Amino acid sequence: MAALFTGKVLMANRERDEVETERELGRALENKVLLLYFASQQCPRCRQFSLLLKDFFLRLTDEFYVERASQLVLVYVSRDETEEQQSAFLRSMPKRWLAVPFGDAFKRELELRFAVSEVPAVVVLKPDGEVIVGNAVEEIRRRGPACFRNWQEAAELVDRNFLLAEDFEDWTMRSITDPIRRLKYKLDKKPEAKNKEREEEAEEAS
Question: pLDDT of 23-39, one tens digit each?
Answer without folding.
Answer: 777 777 889 999 999 99
